[in-house]
Amino acid sequence: MAELPVLKTERLVLRPLRIEDAEAMHHFFSDEKAMTWWSSGPHETLEETRAYVRVNATDTKYLTWVITENCGDALGWVCLIPGREGVAEIGYNLRRTHWRKGYVGEAVSRVIDHCFGERGLHRLTADTDPDNMGSNALLEKLGFQREGYLREEWTTHLGLRDSIIWGLLKREWKPS
């Protein structure tokens, strides 16, 4: 896998995830409220977070940028999971102390610009829990279209959960 480029916005620097980011990412992964809509429950130990981060930092099926302010500690991440040619799924998280500051929208917008520009993708998808109002509102604001509703698609720490499938086409995207 080619090295991920550093991506910048007005307030943020998005850099490739490193294994050493586990300690900073543990703020998110150990937070019960922040992990409500994640596919697994909160991490109980730093070692659990280290193992999880190690996969995203080293497995070539994940392209993961950490969200930072001025290259400081990882506040969260934006991850791409490449699929078919020209298509990838996007996912993200953010430390709860930084919610409602527009950071995720800013970071995801920059990654979308990169995907449709430098990476040459033509389609992005996202998969959310129907009850995750914040994430669903963000995707809609970014121009994603609700394309499907899958009943009892995931078994998570909350039990069987439905899933909304979102899609965004390159021709629909308005670059930031």
TrEMBL record:
Keywords: Transferase. InterPro entries: Acyl_CoA_acyltransferase (IPR016181), GNAT_dom (IPR000182), N-acetyltransferase (IPR051531). Residues 12-165 form the N-acetyltransferase domain. The keyword Transferase applies. One of its GO terms (molecular function) is acyltransferase activity, transferring groups other than amino-acyl groups. The keyword Transit peptide does not apply. PANTHER family: GNAT FAMILY, PUTATIVE (AFU_ORTHOLOGUE AFUA_3G00765)-RELATED-RELATED, N-ACETYLTRANSFERASE DOMAIN-CONTAINING PROTEIN. This is RimJ/RimL family protein N-acetyltransferase. It comes from Parasphingopyxis lamellibrachiae.
